[in-house]
Write a structure and sequence with these properties.
Helix content is 39%, strand content 17%. By secondary structure, it is an alpha/beta fold. It has a single domain (3-185, 220-228), classed as Alpha-Beta Barrel (TIM Barrel). The protein has an 8-stranded parallel beta sheet with strand order 3-4-5-6-7-8-9-10. Strands 1-2 form a two-stranded antiparallel ribbon. The chain starts with a strand and ends in a 19-residue tail after the last helix. The relative contact order is 0.14. The mean pLDDT is 97. Bound molecules: NADP nicotinamide-adenine-dinucleotide phosphate (NAP). NADP nicotinamide-adenine-dinucleotide phosphate (NAP) binds at residues 17-19, 42, 105, 136-137, 156, 182-188, 191, 208, 224-229, 232, 235-236, 262.
Length: 272
């Protein structure tokens, strides 16, 4: 495993995403991921699986200190008292005293001014309910506003070979933020890329493995693929016995084509 050191905190560069995993399947998938060596788990209030993630964590023998658990406050919960109340419920469901990272899932100033929500998250941090706070799906301008207001640890955004995040990466690097790549496999679309297939053949790896290696080989970046299949979970963590050359890294960067897969109606104007 490669660890990122961000603001003196160590974070496994490869995590396990849990969007769309529900019920027993979620509990079993997270338990299996922990057995395979994943130590960074990503959930959210909106995924409605915090209780199942918590059940898997509670029955695992992995020490709490070895885990990095992220959850996210949903867009309708950003008013300060609501953020506090729902985070308390998240911790109860996760059966944890604290999470490692608490994120604003999407910006939504109809619920509260950004600074007020950040203050609420900071208060939870001061009380030990989260070790770090961060944001997700912010534009460069919004991210700068948040950075100017408080200490952020992470920005979680869609990032894969078909979508460049150069501007946000530069911001993450200059402020020592973790940039967590969500939808890192472009929901499976990386499998069809001839270039990723060719690079994979050279290393005896699949296009999914090449993509994840490309992400974790970048400074400040972590990736959180989701896999409901046991075979995919195993494959995705088997990326630490090879590395990509500078030329291969560059060749994958040139695949970027502005292809954004997660763009709900309430998303911000990405160009701002
Ligand atoms: N902050 C946000 O707004 C946000 C938004 C979206 C996602 N996320 C986070 O990011 C995580 C990952 O994103 P995602 O679930 O959207 O997409 P993803 O990880 O890019 O893709 C998941 C899809 O890829 C398949 N897959 C996984 N490993 C594979 C492999 N080795 N070979 C072939 N196919 C493979 C999975 O299949 P199987 O399931 O069949 O194994 C699933 O269909 C989420 O679970 C969530 O934690 C955050």
């Amino acid at each position: 495993m490669i660890d990122r050191t961000i603001q003196q905190t160590s974070v496994p560069a490869l995590g396990f995403g849990t969007y769309q995993l529900r019920g027993t399947a979620c509990r079993e998938a997270v338990a299996d991921a922990l057995t395979l060596g994943y130590r960074h788990i990503d959930t959210a209030q909106a995924y409605r699986n915090e209780a199942e993630v918590g059940a898997a964590l509670a029955t695992s023998d992995v020490p709490r200190d070895d885990l990095f658990v992220t959850t996210k406050v949903w867009v309708d919960h950003l008013e300060p008292d609501t953020a506090r109340r729902t985070t308390t419920q998240s911790l109860r469901d996760l059966q944890l005293d604290y999470v490692d990272l608490l994120l604003i899932h999407w910006p939504n100033e109809d619920a509260a001014p950004l600074e007020a929500t950040l203050d609420a998250l900071d208060a939870l941090k001061d009380e030990g309910k989260t070790r770090h706070i961060g944001v997700s799906n912010f534009t460069p301008t919004l991210l700068q506003r948040a950075i100017d207001h408080t200490t952020l640890f992470c920005h979680q955004v869609e990032y894969h070979p078909f979508l460049s995040q150069d501007a946000l990466l530069a911001q993450a690097r200059s402020h020592d933020l973790l940039l967590t790549a969500y939808t890192p496999l472009a929901r499976g679309e990386v499998l069809a890329s001839g270039r990723l297939q060719a690079i994979g053949e050279r290393h005896g790896k699949t296009p999914a493995q090449v993509t994840l290696r490309w992400l974790v080989q970048q400074e400040q970046v972590a990736a959180i693929p989701k896999a409901s299949s046991a075979q995919h979970r195993k494959e995705n963590i088997d990326i630490f016995d090879f590395s990509l050359s500078d030329e291969e890294m560059r060749a994958i960067h040139t695949l970027a084509a502005g292809q954004r897969l997660v763009d709900p109606a309430f998303a911000p104007n990405w160009e701002r």
